[in-house]
Amino acid sequence: MKIVILDDSATIRMILESFLEDIGVRDDEMFLFENGHDAVEFIKENGADIIFTDINMPNMDGYEFASSVFKMQPNLKNSLFAISGDENRESYQKMKKSGVHRFLRKPINAEHFNHFVEPIVLKSRMMKR
């Protein structure tokens, strides 16, 4: 399994990594990026099963990142989670237009994370067998 975590905040990357470990994801299954261009290149070369991306980032924002990913792997629309602390409804609408259906709000609540993410992880594991 390959899980891509993209956020310009090292703290958020560590929190997501910790939450994923708590639901049984191994370190060698997680690939952390602070730059959207690097994450796109990784996905282009290696693929991905689940992706977490911040919406507001320098250089390549979450909208551009999601659009690039969906052009390469349209099947990831149900496995990409957009993360934001932005209360702006416009941001969510723009992400939805780019094909994103799943959202997590910062600060990320562990119970909320487990409820929405664990089934996706389990489903991805089952499909890999």
Sum this structure up briefly.
The chain is of the alpha/beta class. It has helices spanning 10-22, 36-46, 62-72, 89-97, 110-128, and strands spanning 3-6, 30-33, 50-54, 80-84, 102-105.
Characterize the structure shown.
The chain has 129 residues and is an alpha/beta fold. The chain has one domain (3-128): Response regulator (Rossmann fold, 3-Layer(aba) Sandwich). Helices cover 49% and strands 17% of the residues. The protein has 5 helices and 5 strands. The chain has a 5-stranded parallel β-sheet, with helices on both faces. α2 (36-46) runs parallel beside α3. The longest helix is centred in the C-terminal third of the chain and has 19 residues, at 110-128. It is globular, with a radius of gyration of 13 Å. The model has no long low-confidence stretch (mean pLDDT 92).
Question: Which secondary structure elements does this structure contain, and how are they paired or packed?
Answer:
Blueprint: E1 3-6, H1 10-22, E2 30-33, H2 36-46, E3 50-54, H3 62-72, E4 80-84, H4 89-97, E5 102-105, H5 110-128
Parallel strand pairs: 1-2, 1-3, 3-4, 4-5
Helix pairs in contact: 2-3
